[in-house]
Amino acid sequence: MTTLAETGSEIGGGTGIGTADSGTRSRFEELIAADERVEPRDAMPEAYRATLIRQIAQHAHSEIIGMQPEGNWLTRAPSLRRKAILLAKVQDEAGHGLYLYAAAETLGVSRTEMMDALHTGRQRYSSIFNYPTLTWADVGAIGWLVDGAAIVNQIPLTRCSYGPYARAMVRVCQEESFHQRQGYESLYALAHGTESQRAMAQDAIDRWWWPSLMMFGPPDTASTHSSKSSAWKIKRHSNDELRQRFVDLCVPQAEVLGLSLPDPDLRLNEATGHYEYGEIDWSEFKAVLDGDGPCNRQRMERRVAAHSEGQWVRDAAAAYQAKRAGAQR
Amino acid sequence: MTESGLDLWEVFVRARRGLSHQHVGSLHAPDAEVALRRARDLYTRRGEGVSIWVVPSGAVSASDPGEKEPYFTPARDKDYRYPTYYELPREVRGL
Predict the structure, then answer these.
(1) Pairing mode, if any, of strands A267-269 and A274-276?
(2) Full-model pTM
């Protein structure tokens, strides 16, 4: 018998999780081949663990940083109803970050290590959050397009090979549905409002469309992480497949909104049944990823400041825990 | 401790890989090792699981059933947290 604390668990972190030698490697490969889930106490190749930590941490960081662009409009929402909705959404993003950090911790990495990696730039977050939210319509566009793209990305992750990540994704996807619908509803209201409201909605879509397409990552021909992740069944579809799925969903949705997507090359290919779209500006993607997006510095400064301003809360909690432990002894 | 002098343990079973451990019941045992063996005998006689956790019952902190209303109601009346709250045009697909 072993205790969870010795092996690393789903509940807490832990060290000493078995790494794969030749015997366990074949067991791991059997699990993957049989389309079974890998659970925290199974031995796994070090590269599999490292890949998952990188991906889940980046996903968690994205949820946390993602609170900033929308949080920008909390105090200026146009009605109490929209404000309550936006608050609930931003609160969900925090919750999603926590589900994901907990899932990553089952792989033997600590919360502190991940926060530190984010704050020092060793781990990333989705480059989409380096764009500014200039008008209220951006909140709607984020809900419809950014959350819409996230859902397309995340639904296959509910079947990814690592159990805790897949289970976290089930919760996230269930909750994410309202995020997209509230955004679409808000844009629909603007699109059917005054001329200036309609123009504001169109402007938001014009600015968010291309960055949303970039959320699926580099084209398949240039993606550095895809082949291993596919073999390990972390990733079930290629970047370009998912991007196509997203475009196919969005075009008819934009028509119902009565707004246009900013791509003159967008057209239905009758033969394939898919919408063809124009060239994505990958130099912009690379620039934003490398730190030169409109808000990279602002996002990190805010995150690091929030973390250091919260130090006294963590100190107080630790002091309280030590006091309680002392009292029980 | 109970009248038999044996500790109470809560039992969690993972039905299959990919699912989380679910609480299935409790049992008495003198230590964790025996609790695990008894859990296997008691709760997985028909192949109900592929993994078992046992946790001392005293280690479980529970919310107060009497506080059910104030504890959980605030979430329920925020109906805008549910996707069905939003009315979308009938012709729109995939949202």
Answers:
(1) antiparallel
(2) 0.89
The answer on pLDDT for A193 being more than 70 is yes
- Which of B51, B78, B81 best tests the A interface by mutation, with the highest count of A CBs <10 A? B81
Sequence-distant (≥ 6) Cβ neighbours of residue A279 within 8 angstroms: A265
Contact assignment for A167 to B51 by CB distance below 8 Å: no
* Residue from A172, A51, A159, A63 nearest A107 by CA: A51
User: Residue A180: its chain B contacts at CB < 8 A?
Assistant: 95
Q: Contact at 8 Å (CB) between A169 and A90?
A: no
Q: Is residue B68 over pLDDT 90?
A: no
Place of tokens 């046992």: B54
Q: Which residues contact A51 (CB under 8 A, 6 or more apart)?
A: A225, A228, A229, A232, A234
How confident is the model at residue A222, as a pLDDT?
84
Take residue A272 and report the two structure tokens written for it: 């394939």
Among candidates B33, B80, B86 on the partner chain, residue whose Cβ is nearest the Cβ of A88: B80
DSSP string, chain B: --TTSPEEEEEEEE-STTSPPEEEEEEEESSHHHHHHHHHHHH-TTS--SEEEEEEGGG-----GGGHHHHHHHHHT-GGGSGGGS---TT----
- Is A284 in the B-facing interface, judged by CB distances under 8 Å? no
What whole-number distance in Å separates Cα of residue A119 and Cα of residue A308?
11
Write down the pLDDT at residue A248. 98
Closest CA in chain A for residue B85: A178
State the amino acid at position B74 in one-letter form: P
Task: Give the ipTM.
Answer: 0.79
- Per-residue pLDDT band for A1 (boundaries 50, 70, 90) equals low
Alpha helices (H) along chain A: 4-7, 22-33, 46-65, 67-71, 80-105, 111-119, 137-141, 147-154, 163-191, 195-214, 226-231, 239-257, 282-287, 296-309, 311-328
Lowest-confidence segment of A4-18, A91-105, A154-168, B19-33 by average pLDDT: A4-18
The H or E element that residue A276 is part of is strand A274-276
Q: CA of A165: which chain B residue's CA is closest?
A: B18
Q: What is the DSSP letter of A143?
A: I
| Inter-residue contact A83 to A77 (CB < 8 Å) | yes
Task: Output the six-digit token pair for B14.
Answer: 């993972």
Q: Residue B26 and residue A166: Cα distance in Å, rounded?
A: 28
CB B41 within 8 A of CB B24: no
What are the tens digits of pLDDT across the range A20-38?
455 655 889 999 999 999 9
